[in-house]
Automatic annotation (TrEMBL):
It holds the Pfam family Abhydrolase_1. It comes from Pseudomonas benzenivorans. Keywords: Hydrolase. It comes from the Bacteria. This is Alpha/beta hydrolase. Residues 21-119 form the AB hydrolase-1 domain. One of its GO terms (molecular function) is hydrolase activity.
Amino acid sequence: MAYFDCDGCQLHYEEYGQGAPLLLVHGLGSSTRDWEYQIPTLAARYRVVALDLRGHGRSDKPRERYSIAGFAEDVAALIEHLQLGKVHLVGISMGGMIGFQLGVDRPELLRSLCIVNSAPEVKARRPRDYLEIAKRWSLSRLLSLDTIAKGLGRLLFPRPEQAELRRKIEERWPRNDKRAYLASLDAIIGWGVRERLARITCPTLVISADRDYTPVAQKQAYVDEMLDARLLVIENSRHATPLDQPQCFNSSLLAFLDEVEGAAPPHHKDP
């Protein structure tokens, strides 16, 4: 367990393994534990760094407005603090948004990008979008974290054999700081960098569950706008793909990373 100071905010991170640096960025209301089924497999071949974003997990929860750009600055600060150089970044949901933000603001920090069940913007384009966003914003404020946890558990893991995953959500979600959780949700709504996607030049893998909140076609549309991106659909999965399809997710991610590493120029050591 390690911490570093970023503008007076103590951020918690964990490190495992050795090799090329691989940074894992969790989603809204979660923590490093988003990646419990990935870290052992990935750390066998990579130097894995997982952090708790500000307002989440074991990191500080300052009483302030949060922003996706601010989260991305925290990630950049961690990369520089650990002197990682270019990293492979994997982000799920809000973590994917942070990946997009870092990609357009600091492309020199990325060796590759893996975006999981996410998007480069959360903007209302149609009347239905406004209703969905308003509903989520309102319910998050009205309902207790316990109630949200139970609903999320049923939504993300509906199958009988997923009882253990439901239990994990129901146990972990209520540990969130409600104010920090709402500030993070507010950071997402209205955010977007879609018009700057061309700035992301590193190899990018977009992973979409077949039953994610947003349709696969929506992901394909933004993948088509990127220079070096591809879409992979994982079947029989919902929004928490690394948890509900860990083997398929891990093997797909490793195949992509190995391909990128194979294409990397050899590291020449100074004589």
